[in-house]
Fold these 2 entries.
Entry 1:
Amino acid sequence: MAFPVPRTCPFDLPAGYAALRTERPVSRVRLPDGQLAWLVTRYEDVRRLATDPRISADRGHPNSPYTELVTAQGRAAIAAVGRSLIGLDPPEHGPRRRMLMPEFTVRRVNGLRPHIQRVVDESIAALLAGPRPAELVTALALPVTSTVICELLGVPYADRDFFLDRAAVQVRRDVPPERRRQAGGELRAYLDRLVTGKERDGGDDLLSRLAARRNAEFDHDQLVGLAMLLLIAGFESTASMIVLGVVVLLEHGGAAAVPKDPAALGLAVEELLRYLSIVDTMPRVATADIEVGGVTIPAGDGVLLSFASANHDADTFDDPAGLRLGRGSRQHVAFGYGAHQCLGQNLARAELEIVFRSLFTRVPGLRLAVPLADLPFKRDASVYGLDRLPVTW
Amino acid sequence: MTGIAMRLIIDRERCVGAGLCVLSAPELFDQSDADGRVVVRASTDADDPAVHEAGRLCPSGALRIAGP
Ligand code: SF4
């Protein structure tokens, strides 16, 4: 089977996942570069492998399964960013992650809520003051998520257009590898300068605090790589969840569907995360023979854990293809699972809750400005999303 | 669930600071400001459904419920 499989229905998973879960829960797939890997699709298997010490996250491994076509140079660049956190294994991974953990605790993020609220209110006010129809990716999703991550990291907001553009190019599958590499290089050079300034002057932001802790294992280049990872991860996926979430909520009753009670709203966001599962797979490599789902994955083979498929496993979730905002379950793996589970997940939760509540309260008459079928869904991107979301009210 | 023999075992070494324990039982769990790792606020009753939920959600195996 060729992988990845594009989504056909805007909100459902790629066709064939359900059959794979029942018939071949661990199956052989062929990636765009011709390489073979194992695709793991059942919830229990995905969770088990995500915490299995015989599974490596090393993106520099020659068999690390890339779901997009990358050049050898591109591979090296992705592996280098991976070496700053997401591609590390024990014993390096733990200490590096722990440097960041205090910055993203539930309490710390809750302390940011008034600030996020202010940013969201400003974007909505600008939206309401502007022309109709409006476009929600550039009017709300990107400004909110990029402002929040800029302030947290200490990246000047004035430079936002520059890095939003480079970051957007970098994560697209339909852009030639050469242009992606160039955008990545420019972004890296920018962050290199920024980090150098923070190493010299310091300040009250995350990158300055990290700069103050540099040592032999965590040097300037590592810090630049980490800055790049946090910056891109900080807005790309949350912005996608915002726009897709708005469309799903509009399809399910709009303002009336958004719970008023904060706890219920929090659980509704969990269900949107599960239902949409915008990041399908994460790449891993087996470091020993591993028996799972009726097969033995040989040591050295690439493995794709499908968190999206896991989130639609009927053995774990009743009626998994259905959206039930009152489902009341946080056991989805939309943020991954195991030691690499998303570090910024509570920041994402806070942003989503505040955006959905504020938008549907302030603009209760919100509606799509074009038919659902005409929306430009990124069916083939590594993070599922929308290029544009025209709305009116 | 009956009895008092269930125990909550906390392994801070494994904790990856995801905070799902705090989300599912904020009155029982917190995260340290110093290192982001789990802190138990109150004496926990491992029979409490919220504690079970936290154990089920914890992505790192840092929270485990040990049977009688
Ligand atoms: S859920 Fe587990 S990993 Fe996350 S903070 Fe709590 S104990 Fe640590």
Note: The pocket of iron/sulfur cluster is lined by residues B 15-21, 31, 38, 58-60, 62-63 (CB under 6 Å).
Entry 2:
Amino acid sequence: MENLKEKEEVKDKKNLLEWAVFWLGLALLLSIFTYLGYQVYNHKPSPPEILVEYWPEPSEAQPNRYRVVVRNTGGETAESVLVELVLEQGGEEVEKAELQLNFVPQGSKREGWVNFSQKPAAGATVSARVASYQKP
Amino acid sequence: MKDSLNRPVSESLKEYARGIAGGLLFSFPLLYTMEVWWAGFIASPAQLILLVITTYLLLLGYNRYAGMREDASWRSVFVDSVEEMGIGLALSFGVLLMLGRISLSGMSVEELMGKVIVEAMAVSIGVSVGTAQLGADSGGSEEEGSAGEVGGQDEGSRTGSLGTAVLALCGAILVGGNVAPTEEILMIAVEADPVHVLLMAVVSLLLSTVVMTFSDFKGTNPKPDKVTAYSIIHDTCISYIVALAASAFVLWFFGRFENMSFWNAFAQCITLGVLSSLGASAGRLLIK
């Protein structure tokens, strides 16, 4: 019986590599728990908050191209985000271009481009608005 | 060979290699499923914590009742489970990075961590099963020869109701988890008539019964001689209940019950239950 117990203890013995993997794994797990715990503690349920930045970025094939960067600073992921860029000339809406994004997770950014069919003339303004998004 | 004072490094390297192969084998379908990536950033931090804890408990159960060194002490089971989770996290991070699903710039820590954690849980169960299963040929027979006396005591713990339920749970999660995050479950459940749902439940029960009564998978323990009606009903009930519970948990995690009527949620459980009940009954025999 004693012999058996001894044998079991020997089998349980781990070498350096296994201990290293164990401690690394434990450190990973603990840091994940710390991080998630901190998040839970600070988590305030808030709807998505979508910010849009845009600037002209013409290319050879698409001279009227605009680059669009969408950021979500809210507390929740937004699904099916629809961004509209409106080209206005003399106070009148001339053209509208749309960008559809599948998901914009909280804290993350997504990028895309839109194209207008005509070159914005001098004095024209381009404005952006987030038309819609849904709760995933 | 294993009785030398410390396990040789080459031995543990082999074990890790088996674990990694198994982890990828069982979790590649999930690593390549977009609904799972989405779950990473949709899930709340509290849900992620719950997922990690649940997976750790599953690993403990699996390692205790089916792990390769089933004669190991609880301390060893705890240590092994942590190792497997660590490997799972590292693998998940590496594969997602390779697939371009995570990037280190422009992506919030929440999104990155969420994706890695959700995938890592599937991978670490795979690592655990892989370590135990892929090495069963060399390790298993050897151990039986050298440690026959432990085997006897082991039979008892393995055939107990708790052990059965734990293995059924692992099998159900392993098989059912692969399709649970997909939209198809929702689509089938929402479009099903009550008669379809009833049919699915009956088929699940039949499958479980057939598997447990007639199948004799290679390498499994010989069944006890007496197969009574009672034991069949008992086993079928355990595995179906466990399968439904596993289905409900996984579906809830992927947010499939939000704003759903009771009927739709129930129908989803039964729909997924067809797969997870097969996992609970067949998986239980295969992965032990």
Note: The two ends of chain B are 23 Å apart (CA to CA).
